[in-house]
Specification:
single chain; alpha/beta; D-Maltodextrin-Binding Protein, domain 2; 32% helix; 20% strand; globular
């Protein structure tokens, strides 16, 4: 209920600003212990966990998180409707200039790495895909399951995203489709919950979700050692297919575990950034550094599917 009230309060304030308020509020419009921030909805599970822990350590802080798509979060930051965001990219030069024009400085830092998971229905036997096939799907060249290299079925193949303005769609567009809009059998829902529900119901869909949404139950704070207890199947993703000239095979196709993000063997990953424009040395700034250091990094490592930015020790364990 506390989180719901916070979200309602935040929405009302942002609505007032949008409907008639100044786009550049007075410098003192935020109390020094207000932590009003927007986070890319991709990271809601772990960011909410970090927010709750920070509040437990700092009871004087008033936590006011808003979960939305990345474009909306950055627009709110640039307009000074709030002063911290969690995104998957740094500010552009134009965004920096607008923030500085409003007499604010900014600090931004990488604090974790996130991986996309490709999910399919539990009854779907096809759980192997490579990067060239993903590029083919989002460019409209692959529209049928029979076009995949490793397949047991035929029929229309659909790929489903969380939101048309999400950071996931931007990554696919910029990194895999040469900056061109996605085409073919590409669709979007309103959020990750809806993507997962559609995949649970339909065998013709590949869902694209941030891996940390694949928790056994809502509010679960434990990172999964595997993905076997879910109501969906997580696909193996490889850089190359079976016909790769380098001779790689299915053993080189991986699921998005932290280990394979760390070693670079899982191809679909991206950085996660905290950006703050509040210069006051109080709760907002403390929360910014909480993401980057100490307990914040330990929670990311131990209680999420994200990989913390701090150096981790990677070990190969041989079972006897």
């Amino acid at each position: 209920m506390k989180r719901l009230l916070c979200l309602i309060s935040t929405s009302i304030i942002l609505l007032l600003n949008a409907c008639g308020g100044s786009s550049t509020p007075n410098a003192n419009y935020l109390h020094e212990d207000d932590v009003r921030f927007a986070a890319d909805a991709s990271f809601e599970p772990i960011v909410q966990e970090l927010s709750d822990l920070f509040n437990a350590r700092h009871p004087e802080a008033t936590m006011l998180p808003l979960y939305c798509n990345e474009d909306s979060a950055i627009r709110l930051l640039v307009r000074d409707s709030l002063r911290m965001v969690i995104t998957t990219r740094k500010l552009t030069e134009n965004e920096k200039a607008l923030i500085q024009k409003a007499k604010h400085n900014y600090k931004q830092s990488l604090f974790a790495y996130d991986a996309f998971a490709l999910i399919v229905n539990k009854n779907n036997p096809d759980t192997v895909i490579n990067m060239n096939e993903i590029k083919g799907i989002i460019s409209g060249k692959i529209t049928d399951w029979s076009q995949l290299e490793v397949t047991h079925k035929s029929g229309p193949l659909h790929m489903l995203f969380d939101h048309s303005g999400s950071s996931t769609v931007r990554f696919m567009k910029d990194s895999l489709n040469g900056g061109k809009p996605l085409s073919g059998n590409i669709y979007a829902e309103d959020n990750y919950d809806d993507v997962i529900k559609v995949v649970q119901e339909r065998e013709d869909v590949i869902g694209v979700v941030s891996t940390d949404w694949l928790r056994v139950s809502k509010g679960d704070t434990c990172a999964l050692e595997n993905f076997r207890d879910l109501d969906v199947r997580v696909m193996l993703v490889g850089f190359y297919g079976l016909k790769d000239p380098l001779g790689l095979d299915a053993r080189d196709w991986q699921r998005p575990y932290q280990y394979y993000i760390a070693t670079g063997e899982y191809p679909l990953f991206r950085g996660v950034y905290a950006i703050c424009t509040d210069s006051r040395p109080k709760s907002m700034t403390s929360m910014f550094y909480f993401f980057l250091k100490g307990d914040g990094q330990r929670v990311i490592c131990n209680s999420s599917q994200l990989l913390p930015r701090n150096q981790v020790q990677v070990r190969n364990v041989i079972a006897k």
